[in-house]
Amino acid sequence: MSLAPGTSEANSARTSQPGFAGAAIFDRYVLSRLTRRTRLRRLLLERITEPLHLNLASVFVALFGTYRAKVACDLVIRQQFAWPLLRIADEAVKIGLKRVSIAEFGVANGAGLLNMCKLAVSTTKATGIEFDVYGFDTGTGMPPAIDHRDHPELWQQSDFPMDVGALQRALPGFARLLIGDVAETIPSFLASLSPQAPLAFVSLDLDYYSSSKRALEVFKGEPTQYLPTAQIYLDDIVIENANPWCGELLAVEEFNAETAMRKIAPVPMVRSQRLFKNARYLDQMYQLHVFDHPLRQPRSDRAAHVIPNEYIG
Ligand SMILES: C[S@@+](CC[C@H](N)C(=O)[O-])C[C@H]1O[C@@H](n2cnc3c(N)ncnc32)[C@H](O)[C@@H]1O
């Protein structure tokens, strides 16, 4: 049984996981990912089309750079987690939080969840913000598809099984698996989600419309259970069949129609904020706007912003 994140047992386990924190597993993992043909082709396509001077600079960053510089240059495996984790940690520092919660919906064999844990450790070192990590999955693979909206032409029941025991053993103490259909696991998760560690990032990778729609219920808790703007990664909107009438896009559209004070929208100006503009994940980065969050209400308790005018001194 995994430990609940945030407990003292979990915190001591955080530091007593040499096997997890050790780089060896991940070096092999990085190599195996990079040698997969489709990944290599995508990487080359994304990087070869970027300016030469930036690619040259990245070699130096890869060798000598800080973690933050490596994330800036998209040199970290799963940039779609690394970048938002730094964003939410910086935001948490600004508003005086010490820890935040992050979740992966759709875990399968857990490669993504373990990678998320590794990036959480690196982000903690860079920012001081600690993470509670949650992985949601049936534990038995995909449930049956309901109809065409679930893209049954791509996915079917029992795809993506999990070795629950092996994954439980591999997870560090600050991470926890929530096994069952998301419709059943979200209510108790929300009941235990503390404003001291609000939900700040969600990776949605449940493939189906029906599962994604149920998963988005996680954003219907109390306003202080979230960062005022939480980050979301939508894994399945860049498939060739993606369209607004199926899959995650439909689930997001229906969520926005149902909730007046919570809206999900793409991250604005995302390309202008990044050095490397061609990375595919930039099209998959969304945000939850929590309009009813106390920090998004009219206020008059700080000094007024003043715009300097160099013409009049
Ligand atoms: C594509 S896999 C996830 C891959 C994983 N994110 C990774 O990076 O390796 C999709 C997962 O979603 C899970 N899933 C789909 N519908 C679900 C539901 N309603 N409740 C819980 N898990 C679900 C399946 O069990 C499956 O493991």
Give the overall pLDDT as a whole number. 89
Architecture per CATH nomenclature, i.e. the level-2 architecture of the domain at 77-294: 3-Layer(aba) Sandwich
List the ions, cofactors and other small molecules found in this model: S-adenosylmethionine
Give the terminus-to-terminus CA distance.
65 Å
Under CATH, the topology of the domain at 77-294 can be stated as: Rossmann fold
Pairing-aware structural class of the strands and helices? Answer: alpha/beta
Number of strands: 7
Low-confidence stretches: 6-19, 21-26
Global morphology: globular
Output the number of helix runs.
Answer: 12
H/E topology pattern: HHHHHHHEHEHEHEHEHEE
**Radius of gyration using CA atoms only:** 20 Å
Physical arrangement of strands within the biggest beta sheet? 3-2-1-4-5-7-6
Share of helix among residues? 25-40%
Q: Could you name the CATH class of the domain at 77-294?
A: Alpha Beta
Q: How would a textbook summarize the main sheet?
A: 7 strands, mixed
Strand content: 5-15%
Search tags:
about 15% strand; binds S-adenosylmethionine; seven-stranded mixed sheet; about 325 residues
Question: What would you say this structure looks like, in words?
Answer:
The chain has 313 residues and is of the alpha/beta class. It has a domain at 77-294: Vaccinia Virus protein VP39 (Rossmann fold). 40% of the residues lie in helices and 15% in strands. It has helices at residues 8-15, 18-21, 24-34, 37-48, 52-64, 67-72, 79-94, 111-127, 164-170, 182-192, 209-215, 247-258; strands at residues 99-105, 130-137, 175-179, 199-204, 226-234, 262-266, 285-290. It has a seven-stranded mixed β-sheet, with helices on both faces. Helix 8 links the parallel strand 1 (99-105) and strand 2. The radius of gyration is 20 Å and the shape is globular. The termini are far apart. Mean pLDDT is 89; it is low at 6-19 and 21-26. The structure holds S-adenosylmethionine (SAM). Residues 104, 106-108, 111-112, 136-138, 141-143, 160, 181-182, 205-208, 211, 214 line the site of S-adenosylmethionine (SAM).
